[in-house]
Amino acid sequence: MRGSPPRMLSPLTDPGLLLGGRGGVGGTGLPRASLSSRAPPPLLALAVFAGAFAVYAATAFPGLPGGDAGELIAAAASGGVAHPPGFPLWLLLGRLAARLPWGALAWRENLLSAGCGAGATTLLFLAAARLTASPGAALVAASLFASSPVVWRYAQGAEVFALDNLLVAAVLYCAVRLEEAARHARIAPAGEAEDGPASPRARRGPGEAATRAPLACRRRFALLCALFFGLALADHPESLLSALPLAVFAAARDPSLVRGRRLFALAGAFAAGLSPYLYLPIAGAHPAVVTWGATDTWSGFWIHVLRREYGTFRLSTDAGGPGAGSLLLAWALSMGKNLGAVGVAAAPAGVLVLWRSDRGFAIALLGAMLLPVAVFAALGNLPLADALKVATYARFWQQPLLVACLFAAPAIALLAARMPSRRLAAALMVLLGLPAPALRYPEMDRGHDRIVEGYGRDILRIAPPGALLIARGDLIVNSVRYLQVAEQLRPDVRVVPDGFLALPWGRRRVTEILPDVIVPPNVARPGGPGRVDPAALVAANFDRYPVMLCGGVEEGNPALLARFSLWPWGLCDLVRPRSDTPDVPAWVAGSLAALPAIPAGPLRPGTWDEVVRDDAFAARQMRAIKLMDLAGHDPDKRAWLLSAAAILDGIVRQDPHPAPQFFRSLAVALGRLGTETPRQKARTAAAWRRYLAVAPDTDPQLPAIRRELARLQE
Hints:
The protein is mainly alpha-helical. It is about 60% helix and about 5% strand. A five-stranded mixed sheet has the order 4-3-5-7-6, with helices on both faces. A two-stranded antiparallel sheet has the order 1-2. Helix 5 runs antiparallel to helix 6 (about 135-145) and helix 21 crosses helix 22. The chain is globular and about 90 Å long. The termini are far apart. The chain is built from 31 helices and seven strands. The longest helix is centred in the middle third of the chain and has 34 residues, at about 325-355. It folds into three domains: about 40-200 and about 210-440, no CATH class; about 450-595, no CATH class; about 605-714, Serine Threonine Protein Phosphatase 5, Tetratricopeptide repeat (Alpha Horseshoe). Helix 22 (about 475-485) links the parallel strand 3 (about 470) and strand 4 (about 495).
C-alpha cells in the first residue's frame, strides 16, 4: 500500500542483507534502516529486571559495605550532605529507601542500588533489542553487563554508581530511540514530508500518521534524553563524559530538535533534571549528624559541587598520578576482566558491524565509551599503588563498559543470523549469556559479609564511656558514624573526623553537632590542606573526656607525642599524659580483649575487607611494639618481650600478604631476646632475610641490617 509505513530491516528480519546481499550501503551489505521499530516483548523486559534484581538482592551486603557507603547512608538518613560533589539525587532517593519498613538501614539502601543496577541492565536490554531486533542478542549483552564484577559489586551496596549506570543507560536508550525515529522519517515514501504530507491527497492518506509519528517520537525522546541527562549530573557529574557525546550526536543528526521553542523545552527538561541540587543548600542550612561542607552559602555551594576541596577534576589531593599510559593499560585490563572472553571478542566486532551500518551513530557510541577513559587518563591523580586504588578507578569505567556491551549486541546478532536454525541460534545465546553470571555468583555473593560493619562495632565496643574519638580515615569515620545514626550504637561517644578540622567550615560543623567539644583555633596546621594538629584538640578536651585516637598520627607531627603517650587499644590508641604510666598488667589484659577479630577465609583483592584484615594485623603489631618498648632491656620484663615476639610471629604466619614492617619488628624482637645460640641466630637471620626481600629502598637502615645479617650467618 502506497501510504503504509516502510518495513524496517534488521539482522534477524533480513539476515541476507546483513551478510552481504543486495541493497546495502557502500557495498557493505548493511541496510540504511537497520534499526528495528519493533519493541521487545514487555514481559521479557520485566523478566530481565526481575532476574537481575533477584540476583543483586540475594548477593547484596546484609549490612554496611565499605567505601563511602557509611557516610552516604548516614547523610541520607539524617538529612545531611555527602562529600563533594554532594550526590543530591542519591541522597533524596536514599531518604525514601530509609523509610522502607523492614530490614536494617544499610540493607534497605543496598536494595536501592540493586534496583538501580537491575534498571540499568533492563534499559541496556531494551536499547540492544531496538538496535538489533534480536531479543536473544540483547539478552546476552545485558548478561555481559549485569554479571561484570565491577557492575555487580556496585549493585550490592549503597553507592552512587548503580544509579549513575541507570541514568546513563536511560540516556543511551533515548539516543537509540531518537536514531530509530530519525531513520524511520528519512526512509518515508516521497511526497510525505516530515511535518506533514505535501498534498491534500497525502494529508488524507494513512501516510500522515506514519510521518507525524516519528516526529512526535523524536520530540518525546529528546525531552526524556535531556531530563535523564540532567538527573545523571545530579547524581554524579562524571556522567557528563558518557552522556554528552550522545546528546551532541542527537542534536547534530536532527537540528530541528534544538530550534525555537523546542530548544527551550529541552532546556527546561534539563533544568528539571538538575533540580535535586536545590537539596544541598536546604540540607546545609540545618545541622545534621553527618554533613559535609558549607552548602548553605553561595560560595560554599559551588566549592562543594565543583569539588574544589579535592581539586576540581581530581580524584584526590595528591599532586601527581600514575600517568596516562599506566591508566590506559589499567582500563584495558579492567575491561578485559569485566567483559570476559565473550565480551572481549564481541564488542570490537560489534563496533565494525555498526560502523558499516551507521557510521555516525557508531562514532557517537565510541565517544560515549572513550571520552571518560581519556579524561581520567589525562587528569587521574590517584596512584595505582594497590588493588584498592585500581578498583577506585574501575568504578568510573562502568559507563564505558555499558557502551561496550551495547556494541557487543550487533556482533552477537550477526553470529546468530548465520546459524542454520532458530534452535541453534537459541542454544548459542544460552551458551554466550549464561556461563558468566553462573560462574561468578559464588565469588560475588556478599550475602553474609558483615566485615566492615564488624570493624565499626569493634571500635565503638572498646571506647571508654563518654569518650572523645578523634577518627582519621574514611573506613573508620564512615563505619562508626553509620552505626551511631542507624542503630544508635554508643551515642555517648563523641566522634570528630580530624580531616574536617583542616577545612574552613570544619570547626563550625563540629561545634554544631558536638557543642560540648572544644575546638581550638590552632587545630589546623600550616603547610598544606588536610593537615591537622590533634595535640591542640586533645589538650583542650583531655580533662573533660577520655580521649581515643583511631587511624594513627600523621608522620612528622611530634607535638602530640611530646605531651602525651599512646597506648594501643584494639584498632585505636588511648591517650594518656606523658608522665602517667598506667597499670601495665591491666593494660596487657585489656588490650588483648580489645583486639578485633581477623576476617577469616580468602578475601577478594581490591575490597575494603582486605583493609579491615590489614588493620586487624596492624593492631596486633602495635600492641607487640608497645610491649617491646615496655620491656626495654630489663631482664625482669623478658616475658613481655617473649609475648611481643610471639604476636609478631603469629602475624607473619597468618597474614597471607605480610607488610615489610612485620618482618622488621619480628627480627628486632628476636634479636633482643638474644642471639647466643645457633637456633636464636637462625630465627633472627631468617626474619631479617624476609624483611630484606620486601624492604623499601628508602629504608636508611638497610646497610646496617645487611651487616647484622652477615654477622648472624657467620
